[in-house]
């Protein structure tokens, strides 16, 4: 795997997807899903009708936006949706009216502490409208009449989502879930889909998958709630581990947010992976949740889902503003997150309980697994890893436990596991755990 090339590819895809205006529903979501389907034809685009009840929620109307802007008293067009889709509050109702500045101010949003940033604001579940602008621009507005134009439609349509299922030997599943409902933002939107679709490409190429992989591209919150409401029993019976893929594009420290269970298989592999992937990461508790782990881990759903991220949502200053642009993410940042998540997947594929097949130490030399001559000048580090693994492969520890016990990366032990399996010196004593 060429990580540099993969990082560049993911970044190019983010560049191509960045201009699309995504929301909970509408053509931007379908355009994004169509783009992803061109990469992985196995992606199925599903739909859920507006008005569908999903637990305590109702799927909202579909939203279509053609254009939006404000004309100032001097005739200048500002807050133009075509120039930046963050200028318009998501799900704004149609408007064409003239207002005084005081009346308009009630529908304007800016961030005084970040005077050059355009905030991201939505109103999905209550009819409203508004414009977002840099605070520096807002403070320069003068008294007079302002014409507001919002060419939008809200109608009974559908909510769309993407789903890929790659079957494995086992019906037990690993879940990857990301979201496709934010407009032009890079880290807290596009980093998730571009890393996830790259992971889907890697999973598709696996010759023999132990697990079945379920990969979801959902509108956040309502999308995951609606999906869970349709698939809850299947997920509860089959899901062994899941990861929310979001905020994975910058080059700041890694982050991990544990599941509500705290000790699920997903948590176990995430902690082990990050320990050996990076020098430092921040561990956030479920009390600091904020993405779709809220739904997958909620009481009564109780799925083993956690998050491996770079800068966690809500912790970086550019979050939910126009400053979360393509300069915030990088090919290296994307590639690092991709490698971390792919490492977790590769470890899960080999996370069986292993047991030695001989009593006392096996004779490794006759199997070509030990140097023919004993010379203390040789590098015995790989042999030491192998013998340490054999010493603790007593049928009570899975791969991650073995790796933790001998203080090695489970990823580094996989080639050794394969050699020992081929030599019939260890055996798998249970199904994937």
UniProtKB/TrEMBL annotation:
Cell membrane listed as a keyword: no
Residue intervals of the DUF2172 domain: 62-153
InterPro entries reported in the protein's UniProt record: DUF2172, DUF4910, UCP015244, UCP01524_HTH, WH-like_DNA-bd_sf
UniProt keyword Hydrolase, yes or no: yes
Top-level taxon of origin: Bacteria
Occurrences of domain DUF4910 (ranges): 11-351
Residue ranges annotated for the UCP01524 winged helix-turn-helix domain, each copy included: 352-427
Sorted UniProt keywords: Aminopeptidase, Hydrolase, Protease
UniProt-recorded Gene Ontology molecular function terms: aminopeptidase activity
Cleaved signal peptide residues: none
Entry-linked Pfam families: DUF2172, DUF4910, HTH_47
Designated name of the protein: Aminopeptidase
Source organism of the structure: Pseudoalteromonas phenolica
